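Tutorial, part two.
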Amino acid sequence: MTSFLLRWLARLSPWMFIASLAYAAMFIQLKADDSALDQPLLEKRDRFFGAAANNNALWFVGGDGVLLETGDGGQNWARQKLPGAVNLQSTAVSPAGVRVVVGNQGKVFVGTVNSQSWKSYVLPLPDYANKLNQVQFFDGAFWVVGEVGSVYRLSADGMTWKDYSLGDDFTINDIARAENGALWLAGEYGNLFRSADNGNNWSRISLSEETLRSIQFHAGEAVVVGNGGQVYVSEDGGANWYRQPPFTAEHLFDVTRHGDRWVAVGDQGQVFAAPTATGEWTQTEPGGMSKSFFMSAVSVDSGIALAGKRPGLVDNNNRWVTWPEGE
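Running the prediction step on this input gives:
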């Protein structure tokens, strides 16, 4: 009798299990844990290479297509991921609110300040060297530079382009417009390139053998920074260049103007400032600031916004604010 009952139970057990699942589906309501689905604003692998600002709105772009943004000066933040998940190197915004983001694989993304949708296209770079390093907006157009001497002028809406490339295999890291109207490029192997006819023809100026990363003009002065802590300055709008006495051996990745001073940023979390291009450059070290790297510095009303391993702000009282706060 016992063996008979066990055989019947063995036959019934699969049907009992199925019945229990059906009961659960009908009468038991499962609740999703929404908190487990929230996307963190920052992840450990994040690296931010470029930044741009427009009034109280700021954008940081970086690895794997990540874009971090705030519309209220850092109080609230949102994170999005641009299509394709390529490394994003730089971003710029026009006074009309058009945003352009550039990065690896020749990718260009175009959007607007108040929209989360993007259009994209690819500039014609070779497969072996297709990184776009920098985008700047001036004189009613976006200018994009990158590997293999690439220089492109984009329309004000970011959607059409014209090629002004060098025709030489030099990586270009930055572009600026001097006050006399000349275009300047900062590139590898210590080379500057100048155009007096809006990019149609370029002349080369060799300053060193080390890569130059960033160039900026202000009130007749000019500053170029690069690898190995090199800083070159001009007091006559680029007609003559002089090497500043070294004040760091670390790479310097960006230079900008904030208020009444020049600011240069680079590796190991270093930030330097000087009242004039030929003045004394002193290090800024507010407590709690990241000691990793800063790739981009943007002047905003509240201070200097910095893109790096962690984005943040050196405020006008020389205090460090990590963005987003609490992350």
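The helical segments are 2-27. In part three we will examine how such features are distributed along the chain.
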